[in-house]
């Protein structure tokens, strides 16, 4: 499977949020720790709903958490 055409700052945002664990974030947004890990690593594209839930967990706009890479279009 090819890497998705976007990147994310979830790992950095978790660190800035008091070193939140992947499991803590997963619990907040309703997915597993493994799903959060895969999204962070660019191995899995979250649904739009999960992406918004992740952004909301950090109190950030979606575009702050996920960045689209036009070069991969």
UniProtKB/TrEMBL annotation:
Entry superkingdom: Bacteria
Record Pfam families: HTH_3
Record keywords: DNA-binding
MF (Gene Ontology): DNA binding
HTH cro/C1-type domain residues: 20-65
Protein name: HTH cro/C1-type domain-containing protein
The species this protein was found in: Sphingopyxis fribergensis
Organism classification: Bacteria, Pseudomonadati, Pseudomonadota, Alphaproteobacteria, Sphingomonadales
